[in-house]
Amino acid sequence: MSTSQLKLSLKDVIPTHPEPYPPQLISFADYLYSLSLQKNPVLPNRAEIARCHFCAYLAAEKYQRSLKLPEPSVRKIPVQPKLIDKFLDDFRVTLLNQERSASASPTTSPTKRRTQRTSNFTTPTSSPSKITKLSPMKHTTPKISSPLKKLQALRDQELKQAGPDSTPASSDINDEESIFNQKEASEASESVPNTPSTPTTKYVKRQITIADFISFANNFFIPASITPKMVESFVSHKHKFTKKNEWLLACGMINAAYVRINHQLLQKTIGAKSQFQNQLFQYQKGGLMRWNMLLWCNIIEDAIKDEPWISEIEQNYIFGKSPLHEDIEKREIDAKLGPGWELFERFGSMSHPNVQFDSDPQNLYHHTWTNNIISQLDS
């Protein structure tokens, strides 16, 4: 996970904390992200785009007191609000409990094993009393391969030899940090359900449904009147990317729409275009390389520049409203042909006011309109 994407997620989770962020916080969030990819390669309910936000939230929650961070917020996590708490609880159980169980697992040093192995043998200088004490252990202790089992067997022998009087002295064995506490091991195994035995790779979704495309477009505030036209254009062109990746087409179309809608912001703000490209790379779920995505964005923008929805965006957000004479001409054509004449013209109809003869009702309408204009000018 890149540091820039982690910083963007931390900015959404703790917006009141100024940059730069503590290195400890960033490294822990990166660790949680890598661990989540191993435990949960694919998140349901199209929550893959919020994986980095979940890890940033848990990291900020853990270091809130030690680093004096503000309380993390869930308002800008890009997933349905009713599912945020469920995903955060799952991440806590899967990641944080796994981290505790891994840090609490016992490790046996070579020196301890060497001490246990050599203590069972007698030396020429050892006293007879020590030989009589160690000989029962030597004959009764079975051969055990595991170091933990060896330690446990030695502990059982000491308890048997000590008798019931030493029970208060050995009460520290039941401590939570004890390596023989089987409850901690069972809790660690239950905290990570369905752990795969074989290594898994991250699933890359190459095909996009209409719902995925709309969800992807909503991350960049595309107007609701433009999104259905973009979906229609996407469906008509997606067959060209059957052997490639349909996310290339989706990223190119979103890029073409965004740079036209927000062209003033991109021109006036330094670094705004680079930030938009980072967000575009973060929200795509096709496993694209960043340089490859930007290359295809330029190719697709040049290929779809004549689409009707591109012309509509340019007319409304770049060139402004249509001139007055074009509006007047359109209203005159609507009066003669009725509403919806543009659809017939798209289907190839040649019936246009420039080549049509006016009927008697149209001539009467034009005569009345002309007389009204002349009377207004004379007055």
Give the topology, please.
Blueprint: H1 3-13, H2 23-39, H3 51-62, H4 81-104, H5 110-119, H6 128-140, H7 147-162, H8 182-191, H9 210-218, H10 227-237, H11 246-261, H12 263-268, H13 272-283, H14 290-303, H15 308-318, H16 324-337, H17 341-346, H18 360-378
Commentary on this structure:
The chain has 18 helices and no strands. It is an all-alpha fold and 379 residues long. It folds into four domains: 103 residues, no CATH class; 61 residues, no CATH class; 109 residues; 55 residues, no CATH class.
What level of helicity do the residues show? Answer: 55-70%
Q: Largest sheet at a glance? A: none
Q: Assess the beta-strand content as a share of residues.
A: under 5%
Order of helices and strands: HHHHHHHHHHHHHHHHHH
Number of helices: 18
**Cα distance spanning the termini:** 75 Å
Number of strands: 0
Keywords: DNA replication, DNA-binding, Nucleus
Region (Disordered): 99-148
Biased composition (Low complexity): 100-110, 117-135
Subcellular location: Nucleus
Features:
379 residues, mainly alpha, 18 helices
Short description:
With 379 residues, the chain is mostly helical. 61% of the residues lie in helices and 0% in strands.
